[in-house]
Each structure stands twice: as structure tokens, then as C-alpha cells.
Amino acid sequence: MLGADEQRSEVARLLTQISAEYEAAQRGLSGLSYGASRHDFIAARMENMGQLHNQLQSLVGDVAIAMIADQLSAVR
């Protein structure tokens, strides 16, 4: 079981990683590569975001998706 400080740190780490995956997927949309490799790259980023969301949800519950939405709105 994580202490309060460790949990906040883990939440911050997960949100930062989700932002990084989102930004990478966004860059993949505007990158120079086309076709299946581009799709695979973006799909992998989205799958990683899903796994990170599951980890975050296990720490904070259903509020995880709202936290992600807030985090990603700052990225745009």
C-alpha cells in the first residue's frame, strides 16, 4: 500500500506519462510517415494510454478519467 506522498507522486507520474503518450500520438498524426506503420505507432500510443488509465484508476478510482481530461486539455 502506498503512503499519501507516494500515491501523489505516482498519480503525477502517470499523468505525465499519459501526456507524453498523447503528444507522441499527436506528432504521429502530423509526421512524415504514412500507412500501416503510422497507424501502428498511434495505436500503440493509445493502448499505452489505456494501460496507464487503468493504473491511475486503481489509485484514484473513477475520477481518473476526469484527471486525464484535465491533463490533456492543458496539452492542446
UniProtKB/TrEMBL annotation:
Domain of life where this protein originates: Bacteria
Protein name per the record: Uncharacterized protein
